[in-house]
């Protein structure tokens, strides 16, 4: 296949749906005891809802939405620290757009900007690097945020800044990794999950083998998948086929993009620039060992936490900030409840007045339900 439209072909989708129904029959699943497939990535959640796959798929298959939205899992204390950095008069704070409206305890970055902070939306850390070159009297801080997909570009910008000897560029590093929280979910005896769909863009960087433990140690199938509707249906079919055949393997549906062993250039840049933090706090999941990255000592001059003594940096004390009252973000992010089961959904929490990040992030499950799920309340009158 060559064009995106071919991955949205209704006839192909129909064939996949019928094959899925065949595997469900073989497994003997029912609506009372559905097969639970967690799509780890928020991008997949949005594709599922945008194309109505949750309604088209056999009713005995249920998609469970996972913690794969980096903006959503950022604890409120880190949002507060980003705002505090942005409010420093010498700082130009650069961020991707979807972090702008995430509520902090005091305010969001957008509210900080409205109050005078110099917050700028960039499309790449290289844009922030260029700003640092153009504004040598200012401190340019880039909000490094994301899973293994965005982690390499931040690493490359740090390497470039080091080569140029820039002294006014730093990273507020919140890069995190996908496999560790999946292990936490699998170790939770309250969770029942039958299989996983893995994020294709993450595996473009890390390959498929970091997920081997899911099949080997927990006997669950996982299929790394692309983001088009037929990608997701084919991935669901592959998971169901494994279950029907009593197999648990790591399979690659997205082989047109994902190399088995990842991208060596990206992996080398990451290994050069980052080391793992002993632990990192995730919203809804708590502290997870070795799940966060920080800059290595040789790049310490580019670490905003060290430079400005915030977060885990020198002399700073990491704070734990409670979530907003009544917010069920943690339960939604770990697949325990659907967004519409949150008491705040559509009442105290809407995209215009968000209570949690899941309602405003482009990969947030609540945003997916709001925009595509038909869950938006109909105005009275
Ligand atoms: S509706 Fe709002 S408060 Fe509830 S889980 Fe979603 S983002 Fe959090």
Structure notes:
This protein has helices at residues 10-27, 42-50, 53-56, 76-86, 109-114, 125-134, 151-164, 179-187, 200-206, 212-218, 229-244, 264-273, 304-308, 329-333, 365-372; strands at residues 35-41, 61-68, 91-95, 119-121, 139-146, 169-175, 195-199, 222-225, 250-252, 274-276, 279-282, 286-289, 293-295. The chain has 381 residues and is α/β, with parallel strands linked by helices. The chain folds into three domains: 10-69 and 179-252, Rossmann fold, CATH 3.40.50.11750; 76-177 and 262-308, Rossmann fold (3-Layer(aba) Sandwich); 329-372, no CATH class. The chain has a five-stranded parallel beta sheet. Strands 4-3-5-6 form a four-stranded parallel beta sheet, with helices on both faces. The N and C termini lie far apart (48 Å). Bound molecules: iron/sulfur cluster (SF4). Iron/sulfur cluster (SF4) binds at residues 327-329, 332, 339, 342, 344-345, 349, 355-356, 358-359, 366. The site of iron/sulfur cluster has 14 residues, from helix 14.
Keyword list:
single chain; 381 residues; alpha/beta; Rossmann fold; 3 domains; five-stranded parallel β-sheet; four-stranded parallel β-sheet; globular; binds iron/sulfur cluster
Q: Which ligands appear in the coordinates?
A: iron/sulfur cluster
Oligomerization state: single chain
Continuous helix count? 15
Strand order of the largest sheet: 2-1-7-8-9
Number of domains: 3
> Which stretches are poorly predicted, pLDDT < 50 over at least 5 residues?
none
Residues in helices, as a percent range: 25-40%
Shape by Cα distribution = globular
CATH superfamily of the largest domain: HypD, alpha/beta domain 2
β-strand number: 13
CATH architecture of the largest domain: 3-Layer(aba) Sandwich
Strand % is 15-25%
Mean pLDDT, all residues:
93
The largest sheet, given as strand count, sense and whether it forms a barrel, is: 5 strands, parallel
- Per CATH, the class of the largest domain reads Alpha Beta
Order of helices and strands: HEHHEHEHEHEHEHEHHEHEHEEEEHHH
- The CATH topology of the largest domain is Rossmann fold
Please state the structural category.
alpha/beta
